[in-house]
Amino acid sequence: MKKREISRLMPGEALKRIKSAQTIVVIGPTSSGKSTFIYALVNHRIIGFILVGIGDKCQTTIIPCNFLFDERIEKDEYFSMRIRTKEFSAKAIHLEILEMLAKEFATNGMCAEDTLDSMDEVAFRKVLEPEDASYHLGKIADKLSLEVFKNVVSDALNEIEEASPSFNERVKAKKKEFEKQKVVMSTIRRIVFEDMWNELEPELLDDYYDWLNSIGKEIMNMLNQLVGTGNGLGEINEYSVEQDDVLPYGGLILQSLFDPYQPYSLVVEDIVLACRPRTELIEKADEDIPLRFCLRDTMGLNQVDMDENSIKDALDIALNCSPDSILLLMNLEERDDVIAECCDVIGEKIGKAKKLDVPVNVIFTKADRIIGNIINKAEKTTVELTQDDYNRHIERAINSMESSIDCYLQKLPQNGATWLSIRYLEERIDPIQIALKELKSDKLVKFKPEGLYQKIDEIIRDTQIRILPKGMKAPLFVTAIDAEKPAVSLKIDGALISDVFNQIQLTLTEDKAVVNGYTITTNHTINGRSVVTYYNKLQRGQGHTTRAYVYGNFSINMKAMLNKILCNSIPDFATLYESEVVGTLVDNLEESEIDRMIEAFDANREITEFAFADINPAIFAGLPPKVRKSQKLHWIFKHYFSSSEKYYMVMDKVAFNLSYGNKRIQNTIDKIYTKPISYDATIREMQDTFKKIFATQAFTDIIAEEIGVAMTELINKMFIII
Known about the structure:
By secondary structure, the chain is α/β, with parallel strands linked by helices.
């Protein structure tokens, strides 16, 4: 069927409407086919610029990226982008430097001069390119001179060499302190070196910290030069991958930002890229509704291995993104026990996903390779694998693979799982497709792009239906006065529920069990690597628990703590609506659009018949028509929230924003984290600052603001803003 004609948009206009698009978070462990999956979605004009190294590199970009697909974008070659930057933090780099210096200092007899003389490019390279790939500075190594580095640390090393008690004396004392714990000498030396470094006079380290911060300035200069001085970072900018087009050329920008070895992850928080999806995917979508959805690639945060702990972390991160659904790719080439263990973890996490009303869809990938291996091991008349072998054994091979998958599926208490090839060949050169076509098998589609597009279309439709009020089958087309703002906004008047908010504050600041749960109470020094890990997890809504032998320990999950307190204090949406603190604002809609909404959401007037039940008729008679209609809409959304299963999704999002996501809280915590102070002092000040934030009137305003924002974002996903 021919698709309905739709109004075209420039890519920047599409990106302005991103908040009303449903979000699907994709997780793909190493070699699961995630890059190939993305390749199958992004249109052919754009894809070549963003998949740097596809097929021959496992490393992915460590910048989280949102791909906004909207078929209304005018041309395949057009795209828009928003690059959100963050405060440069030198702490991850400083951590690697301290470890390197401690090792070199001990190896060279605690002599500063010998340490500096022995320091070479190999050791320095390990600082620029750490083993955990948490950042990359190798591409700007020519701008980070080893000689300059030696100069800025020389005074500090000389001071440590001449300190009293000496390095050796401190090591002996520390060794005696840790005697029962059998701590290795290299760890003791590293601890002592870091302690001595932190005792140095700040003036002695000024040049060093200036050098560290110059790295951030260099990266920001590179980023500004890349996008162009006229294109403000954080703003929506439009480009074309065609040179000499009406839009600026953006091919080099894409190539550089998606190059996994560029240093931009240290200053870029995330990227949003809006473009048209592949034509084949558009053709599979609903004829009457423009295809539009946001695919979030979270696992650019770091490469994820195929093991139960990595999958658990990946699902935690995905759920903390406040998605509308999750898509997990699993590689069938992994060992059976590994896949089974991962499925156990997925089964556990699906419980949380169900509570949030977030479906988890699983696609088992690399089916073509598994089938090829099974056929290759089957009885053959020749050493060579022939088409006849595929024809004879294809059904048995697929049945064997599906039996294994059935065992995995028993561990997954849901139905959103399937298997696909993901790697696509032309039918005439694919022995599997030739064999299945000969058999007229319905499995043929699983080895063609159509199989993937059907599954994606199914996920998109299911996700959209979950958001809509019961009975509605499709989102509503809405014309907003300002397309960048929500069509309908919900505001929470915190003053009307101040007693509840005040109780939340008291719990967070006066309840000793709660306060001791998020502040650092141990007298032992906290490990620097633990501080960096905690901060990274805080940014993703995760908690962190340490199990150190020689350092202080903590177990903090800010989001989970806030979520628990929120849900205890505001147990349901009824608490808000019955307190009359929720306001429904329709300033961004013309009166005719409100009429259409009421008609779509309550055609039989079953909900809105009570809209004016408690309103004084004398007041009602004097209300303007738009105000009366907004009351009906208010009643409709009150009914929606009362009858939907979105409560935990909303509160989960609010809890994340109260723990870090809110810009005011984020900026306050980031400023502390970027201070040139010790890691131990950093985490203590960060957590003490949370307590101070929680005690302010501004915090209760933030609670009200974030609840309103979360509810607003949810209901606006019922609309297609035109």
